[in-house]
TrEMBL record:
Taxonomic placement: Eukaryota, Metazoa, Chordata, Craniata, Vertebrata
Protein family (similarity comment): Belongs to the WD repeat L(2)GL family.
Membrane topology annotation: Peripheral membrane protein
Organism, scientific name: Oncorhynchus mykiss (Rainbow trout)
Compositional bias per record (Polar residues), positions renumbered to this chain: 613-623
GO MF term set: GTPase activator activity; myosin II binding; syntaxin binding
GO BP, sorted A to Z: exocytosis; Golgi to plasma membrane transport; protein transport
PROSITE patterns: V_SNARE, WD_REPEATS_2
InterPro entries noted in UniProt: Lethal2_giant, LLGL2, V_SNARE_CC, WD40/YVTN_repeat-like_dom_sf, WD40_repeat_dom_sf, WD40_rpt
Protein name: Syntaxin-binding protein 5-like
Annotated segments matching region Disordered: 603-624
Domain V-SNARE coiled-coil homology: 964-1024
Entry's Gene Ontology cellular component terms: plasma membrane; SNARE complex
Coiled coil: none
Length: 1029
């Protein structure tokens, strides 16, 4: 049994984050380590290396990351945030951490520049107190003369500043605003991009006017004027050894006439060839990757990294058609917004390869055949198969297969479906999924109140999709007028609540005038045979009918069982069970009719209002009931609006709905929704001796119903004889809406639902061996000899959990999980060779309870519920794992097991790898003789305290990191971590030796100077007499 020590505390980055960074803002690349960093508007940093090296870090302030700067090949990263703070991150450990921070008090940071192999960071700021604000937008040092700095302002002014002389070399005034500056590698000319879509080339010999002005996408009109173009936000000017023509790469610059209906573009100019690459999303930033980290050498660009608002691509510059690289990261988790998630662990070993092989045919072609350029970092598989499996399971994610449900339906005509102006949602949006990995059945619930059943096949097929329509809305013949309402109400003064009038039918007739039909989320199944490729193929669609021009209520629960051949779903009106083998509706019943004679409530209906009321904005008529609980002296009043779909709880991310117990007097919804369904082998009645097929039904009022099912055992009879099922009269009560069912044997082991072994429905038939259904049944009777008769049923609601002994229906254990909040998710999962109940509460707590004793094992305040997305997508699975959508484009995985946390440090990849810095190219004698060498100087002489004095304390505040350097060094583990620590020690020793060598050189220079002066004094006084001195 798992103990409390098995579970550990968590943090938001306990495992890994998948998907594309939400709202990206900036980009950086280390050309030596070959790792890439992406900053986001929410303060997150995503660092990527080779596949498997993926790290997410978060600024505590949550301020947007404006710019990133790698300390190239130093294992460090500088981030500039919107709160005017600079942070230095240590990447020489598996979990990056902040070493130091610098908070600017009176300046706004607008740009940062860090020269290669320099410890001085240039920071451009914007003075707040100045009345005429000039943004310090571009900072770049001269590549050949390192004593000068080029500064560009948004106003169109460019200044070259001499660092040594502390004066301006020249100023350039241009009429158009400057957005970026890029040097030629020789440092004799530079290029600027402007707001009018132009590029200007400047030469240092003559700064009066540009030597070249080009409008790459602007043409001269007939009247002599130039086309107005959009701004060129960034330009890169790179040279190549293989070609005398440079590469000019920029974003934007299209003419307004051309760009009206066009997408964002990236332009690559190489000689006379101009290539325009259209992007699907706006460009945030791009970087040109070059072979050398030295900016004063020939660059030889080989790729362009383009960061889009919702995508991330790399363009291959070495091929003439500029193909893109295939992205190895799971950036695009879905083409459209994610609406639900399901997490399956320990799947059959054959399902993943077959899905991958079929899904590989869906991939796009035309990718570059070269190796992915972002190849930095290392990750080592820990010895042992179990650890290897965990490493792959936690940190790697791969898209296997993609399925579009819209292909099942006819395309909407003009004025209806998607074309209707009144439609606010996608009619094909997926609301719920159910998957059986053993039988490979897949069921999808759509927002248009339809259920699609898919079967998996390795062969293509041309079949007719079966369509069934269900009317899940029931009427009665009696009409109650408002004048009759008072006589039907019951007031109890005795110990028992007695009704003075008979119980009316559960629903009321729709006697009002129907509303005119209007276009809405109605979709029609294709009536013709459909050709389906290998993979999941639609077999049947079940749709809820419209009633009097009003759409049906959305489906709130779903379950499928391949062994029984049954599919069940429910909503706030009732329950439907479909026999998908015989393609018939087995049962369609209102929720109140499921009780039969065992209804714990006595329901007295009120007359409906004259005008219809709608729930969830759907316009469905509602009725109000007065519910009186049978029992000693307790009366229950349950009106109002209970919405089981979390997406309709509140549009302002508010979860303040009341979740009181089912025996309180708080008003609740009159419509009792079916919130959860579960097929399984159980005991439908107290007197049953053997388990049979049953359907467990949970409702929003905390009621649990059992429906026994009689299924023919022979396969021939199963396909011809009808199945019988109905209410058994069994009723159990819990507080709050029912969320989850699970079945345990008397020893506490989890009992799986029966399933059918997969067989290809379109495979070739063998006449000698006719295909028959192979069923695997996990009946509780199989463990009767060891554990006795019966089994345990685990039922969890929003407030409470109970363990019930079947078939006696005796409650063995009860635990009130929460009183002030309510549960959003509850799953029975396997951890530490046993099972437990994992719960996620609306107040952000994650709790685990032992089974079957329901003893609390863990209660952690993990994540405050601030978004409906978290509520819809949070899910647990086996092995102490869980996930949720932290943003519309990112999946956050976490662990709550101690075993996983202990091994997590060894499973993380290394971001920093000890690599020798490449040597600078030898310029040669002639080039050096004619002034080609860079003029190096010691920046310590200019910016050190000896020359510049101490900085003002009021300018910025130094904030030490949350962890000391020694602690963070100790946090790095593994072989690569040891190498990194050895490299750090070697660097420190090298620095000390370098300082010693510098001091020795200074002493030698001082000695030589003293010797020279002494010799000069000796020569001066050599021939003089003593009295002439």
């Amino acid at each position: 049994r798992p103990s409390a020590e098995y579970f550990s505390t968590m943090d938001s980055s306990s495992t890994v984050r998948h998907g594309f960074p939400y709202q990206p803002t900036c980009l950086a690349f280390d050309p030596v380590q070959k790792i890439l960093a992406i900053g986001s508007r929410t303060g997150g940093i995503r660092i990527l290396g080779r596949p498997g090296v993926d790290c997410y870090s978060q600024h505590e302030s949550g301020a947007a990351v404006l710019q990133l700067q790698f300390l190239i090949n130093e294992g460090a990263l500088v981030t500039a945030c919107a709160d005017d703070t600079l942070h230095l991150w240590n990447l020489r450990q598996r979990r990056p951490a902040i070493l130091h921070s610098l908070k600017f008090n009176r300046e706004r940071i607008t740009f940062c520049h860090l020269p290669f192999q320099s410890k001085w960071l240039y920071v451009g700021t914007e003075r707040v107190e100045s009345s005429n604000i000039h943004k310090f937008s571009i900072v770049n040092d001269n590549l050949m003369m390192t004593t000068t700095l080029l500064i560009g302002f948004e106003s169109g002014t460019v200044v070259q500043w001499d660092l040594r002389a502390k004066k301006v070399d020249f100023r350039i005034y241009y009429d158009e605003a400057i957005h970026s500056v890029s040097w030629h590698h020789e440092g004799k000319q530079f290029m600027c991009s402007h707001s009018d879509g132009s590029l200007t080339m400047w030469n240092l010999r003559n700064t009066a006017r540009p030597i070249q002005i080009t409008y790459p996408h602007g043409k001269i009109l007939k009247d002599g004027r130039k086309e107005s173009c959009k701004p060129i936000l960034k330009v890169e000017y790179k040279t190549s050894r293989n070609s005398s023509e440079p590469y000019v790469i920029f974003s934007g610059g299209l003419s307004y006439d051309k760009s009206g209906g066009r997408r964002p573009t990236l332009t690559i100019m190489h000689g006379k060839a101009i290539t325009v690459l259209e992007m699907d999303h706006p460009i945030v930033e791009f970087l040109v990757l070059c072979d050398t980290p030295y900016s004063n050498e020939v660059q030889d660009p080989y790729a362009v990294v383009v960061l889009l608002e919702k995508d991330f691509i790399v363009v291959d510059l070495t091929q003439s058609n500029f193909p893109i690289f295939e992205n190895p990261y799971p950036m695009d988790i879905h083409e459209s917004p994610v609406t639900c998630t399901a997490y399956f662990a320990e799947c059959p070993p054959d399902i993943i390869p077959i899905l991958y092989s079929i899904g590989a045919k869906q991939k796009k072609t035309g990718y570059s055949h070269k190796e992915w350029p972002v190849s930095g970092g290392t990750w080592t598989l820990v010895s042992g198969f179990h650890a290897v499996g965990w490493r792959l399971f936690i940190f790697l994610i791969k898209m296997l297969y993609k399925l579009k449900t819209s292909k099942v339906f006819e395309k909407p005509k003009a004025g209806e479906g998607r074309a209707g102006e009144l439609v606010e949602e996608d009619p094909y949006a997926v609301q719920m999924v159910s998957w059986c990995p053993h039988s490979r059945l897949f069921c999808v619930v759509g927002i248009s109140a339809h259920v699609i059943l898919y079967r998996f096949s390795k062969h293509d097929a041309n079949t007719q999709i079966v369509s069934l329509e269900v009317r899940l809305q029931f009427d009665s013949e009696d009409v109650i007028s408002p004048s009759e309402l008072p006589s039907l109400l019951t007031i109890s003064f005795n110990s028992l609540s007695i009704s003075t009038s008979p119980v009316l039918p559960s629903t009321l007739p729709l006697s009002l005038h129907p509303l005119p039909p209007r276009p809405a989320l109605y979709v029609r199944v294709k009536s013709r045979p459909v050709r389906m490729p290998p993979g999941y193929q639609a077999e049947m669609v079940v749709q809820l009918q419209w009633v009097d021009g009003e759409p049906p209520q959305q489906i709130t629960s779903l379950d499928i069982n391949s062994a029984y051949g049954l599919l069940a779903f429910g909503n706030c009106n009732g329950l439907t069970v479909v026999d998908f083998l015989q393609k018939t509706i087995l049962m369609c019943m209102g929720t109140l009719d499921l009780y039969g004679a065992a209804d714990p409530y006595q329901r007295l209906t009120r007359s409906p209002r004259k005008n219809r009321q709608s729930t969830s904005g759907r316009g469905t008529p509602t009725h109000t009931y007065k519910l009186i609980l049978k029992g000693p002296g307790r009366k229950l009043s349950l009106p109002t609006d209970l919405k089981t779909d979390l997406g309709t709880v509140g549009e302002k991310n508010s979860f303040s709905r009341s979740r009181s117990s089912s025996v309180s007097s708080i008003d609740r919804d009159t419509k009792e929704s079916v919130t959860t369904l579960q097929f399984g082998e159980s005991y439908g009645r107290k007197g049953d001796a053997l388990p049979t097929a049953c359907l467990w039904v949970g409702t929003s009022l905390g009621v649990v119903l059992l429906l026994p099912i009689s299924i023919p055992t022979e396969e021939e009879e199963r396909m011809e004889e009808p199945i019988t099922m109905g209410p058994s009269g069994t009723v159990l009560m819990l507080k709050g809406s029912v969320l989850r069912f699970a079945f345990l044997d008397c020893g506490g082991a989890l009992i799986q639902s029966p399933y059918e072994v997969w067989r290809d429905p379109n495979g070739p038939e063998d006449p000698d061996r006719p295909r028959r259904r192979k069923l695997i049944n996990f009946s509780p009777s199989s463990s009767q000899e060891a554990c006795g008769d019966g089994h345990l049923a685990v039922v969890c609601s929003e407030k409470q959990a109970k363990v019930i002994l079947m078939p006696t229906q005796a409650v063995l254990f009860t635990h009130n999980i929460t009183e002030s909040s309510f549960l959003l998710r509850a799953d029975v999962v396997s951890v530490c060779n046993s099972v437990c109940l994992a719960c996620f509460c609306a107040n952000g707590h994650i709790m685990t309870l032992s089974l079957p004793s329901l003893r609390p094992l863990m209660d952690i305040n993990y994540l405050p519920l601030t978004d409906l997305r978290i509520a819809r997508t949070f899910v647990f699975t086996n092995g102490g794992q869980a996930l949720y959508l932290s943003s519309p484009t990112e999946i956050q995985r976490l662990t709550y097991s101690q075993e996983m946390t202990d091994n997590l440090q060894d499973m993380l990849g290394e971001l920093f790898t000890p690599i020798e810095t490449p040597e600078a190219q030898n310029k040669g004698f002639l080039k050096g003789f004619f002034g080609g060498n860079a003029q190096t100087f010691d920046r310590e002489e200019l910016f050190g305290e000896a020359a510049a004095g101490k900085a003002s304390r009021s300018l910025a505040q130094h904030i030490p990191g949350p962890m000391g350097l020694e602690n963070m060094k100790a946090a790095a583990g593994g072989v690569v971590g040891d190498l990194a620590r050895a490299r750090i020690a070697l660097d420190q020793r090298g620095e000390r030796l370098g300082e010693l060598e510098e001091r020795t050189a200074l002493m030698m220079n001082s000695a030589e100077t003293f010797s020279t002066h002494a010799h000069q004094v000796m020569l001066k006084h050599k021939d003089k007499k003593w009295y002439q001195l």
